[in-house]
Design a protein that fits this description.
The protein is of the alpha/beta class. It is built from six helices and ten strands. Helix 2 crosses helix 5.
Amino acid sequence: MFIARRLWPVAAVCALVGLSSCSQTAELSSTQLGPESLSADPDHTSTTTVSTTTVSLDAASTTARQPDQPTIMRIRLDRRVSDEATEGFEPTVQAVLASDRGWTRAGFEFVFTDSDETDFDYTVVLAEGPEVDSLCLPYDTFGEFSCQIGPVVALNADRWRVAVDNWPTTLDDYRTMLINHEIGHLLGQHHPESRCPGEGQPAPVMAQQSSGVEACTANPWPLPWEIICVQEGVEPLAPPYETDIELTCGPDGPVRQTSPVVP
């Protein structure tokens, strides 16, 4: 398997998720458009000084996918909360990512390491809002939202506990959607142009269903066209902070359109 090495600019990731090699503090002048997962104010522009981490990974942003062989994603699960409502975090994530309804259909195999092991490439963290805010910089998560940035997926513990007020189905479905949505970002996928493809149809899992599903039905699993988009392998794994994205795939196949990272 071909292994590429990439330097990841991820704020404070060394101290926060246990990966290696920190760099100098850098000043970022950027439009704070928020995480890929959820909303932010598109008019909020700031110059922010953040602690930037350079992480050299042995597995990589772009991994050659071998025919008839799964692409291995080595993941550490890191639950940083200890209340009863979050006790099932680890087995829930493992079950969702192992399901034949999920991203395994795109040729991925998810392998999980113990929290004290060092043989992992990606980290999925469950933490309180302020810690998620730190992990997600320079995305703004406002103490409420979740994100993916570089090799890190950071899930907001309050959302895990109670979902959102407008979620129309079960808490289990919401957690499944949250996992699949953010792991979809880790696999290089972006929000589709339309949150709802048609009345009564299931919403894409990469749509921001936490903000509503419009006339669609809530859906926690990737749709067939989303699986195909991941199989195409056009986008790198574990994308870093982005202010603009180029949509390269959608329900009608390949597309070419640059659009801002918005809710």
